[in-house]
Amino acid sequence: MDSVGSNLTPIPDACCVLRLARPPKDFAENGNISAIQLNEEFTLSSDDKMSYPPHLSVWVDSLTTPEQAYKFLAENSPRKLVLRLKVNEICKIQGNFGESTYPNLLNVIWVHLFDEIDGKRIRDCRAGADGHSGIIGLDEKSVPEGLSKNQQKILRKDLRSKLAELASKDCFQIPDL
Question: Long-range contacts for 24-31 (Cβ within 8 Å, ≥24 apart)?
Answer without folding.
Answer: 27/81, 27/173, 28/173
